[in-house]
Amino acid sequence: MNHKGQRYRRSFATEQQADAWVLESKAKLIRGEPVDMGENVQTKRKGNLPYTLDELVRHVYETHWAPMAGGEKALVNAKSIIGVIGAHLPVHKVGKIEIDKARAQLLSGGNSPATVNRKLAALSKALSEAEDLGVIERKPKMTRYKESEHRVRRFTADEERLALAFFDRIGNQDMADYLVLSVDTGMRQGEVLNFRFSDAQDGRATVWGVGAGEQRTKSGKSRTVPLTSRAQAVIDRRRKETNGKAVFPNLNKNQVSHYWGRMAEALGLDEDKQFVPHILRHEFCSKLAANGENAVVIQKLAGHSTLAVTQRYVHLFGGELDGAIARLEKPEEGLRGTKADIVIVDEVEALSRALAALPKEQLQALLSTIQK
Q1: pLDDT digits (tens, 9 = 90+) for 68-81
Q2: What is residue 76's three-state secondary structure?
């Protein structure tokens, strides 16, 4: 059997069995599912290549995810979905139906559509690697859930003032400075905590993608953000007060979570699920959009991997549509024109009436003079 230039062979005892296999296999290929080539072919290991889903995920983690920021999360997501499918299931036996069942089970188990999609993305990466290695002929198709757009919560000026006042009252300068650098540069939490004094040069903060054997940004790409005067002042002061290379040598993720929680409780916002440290990065992007910056500029400053992520802020907070609505409210101005336009029209009409009132001989004489 041939399909899109690929040849598939299998032996059967009868012609009827072979015809049935051809029909079933073509239907599977159209759906993006692997073809059953018989246990005698596919159950054999190929050298040291991954055989089960668990072996495949461990291979992908060791060769792709481990060096990356977020690699541990990808591993957790992959293990979550293969745990539903069957971690010890041979990779070649995984088809669209197994994936769809696991997807539905994860959703019914309380995972949000977005969370299920992240788990599917991890599995998709693993199966792409299996296809590249020749473990499977073709990766099964995956159907992802449509994700709803959630409200992007702003970090208001009053909340910022109260938060800084709280950290000042409890004597935690680290958290106050962390807040300022986060909201003024848009750096992710890990990027702020890993920030070094050498990364701030000539009024700019550089977030390095890969450096000194470690990945320091989510995307692995470096970017530079001009520093506000407030952020620059924080770095200059901490440079004098702090020994070593790190801007926040005594602050880690758990401490940020702890003190942020205390501050949220003091402000009466501890029940607000969106009032988390990441809101500072959201506010950075939202402010840029509200100030009329275009999506490309915001993407570069924030380090978004795709423009689609940035467009969310532009659509919600951009002011490019305000002018259109303002013009819609006053359409008569565009129709009537300016006062100067009205004066010109009146003068032309008066001249036309005057010319029409002239005797024929005077009109001809006037025309002759104009022609000369």
Answers
A1: 767 899 999 999 99
A2: helix
For every residue of 110-122, DSSP letters joined together read: T--HHHHHHHHHH
> Looking at the predicted structure, is the pLDDT value of residue 370 above 90?
no
* Pairing mode of beta strands 200-201, 204-207: antiparallel
Instruction: Enter the tokens of residue 167.
Output: 């950290």
> Would you list the DSSP string of 92-110?
GG--HHHHHHHHHHHHHTT
Both structure tokens of 335: 């129709």
| DSSP H or E stretch at residue 204 | strand 204-207
pTM over the 0.90 mark: no
Mind listing the pLDDT tens digit for each residue in 114-157?
899 999 999 999 999 999 999 999 999 998 888 766 667 899 99
What is the DSSP code (8-state) at residue 238?
H
Residues 6+ apart with CB under 8 A from 162: 267
CB 297 within 8 A of CB 288: yes
Task: Let me know: does 149 contact 177? Beta carbons within 8 Å.
Answer: no
The rounded distance, in Å, linking the Cα atoms of 198 and 219 is 21
DSSP 3-state of 66: coil
Distance CA 196, CA 365 (A): 89
How many other C-beta atoms can be found within 10 angstroms of the C-beta atom of residue 182? 25
Residues facing 224 on adjacent strands? 206
CB 288 within 8 Å of CB 313: yes
Residue tagged 């099964």 (tokens): 140
Structure-token pair, residue 344: 């010109």
Backbone angles phi, psi at 276, to 5 degrees: -125, 165
CA separation for the pair 110, 98 (Å, rounded): 19
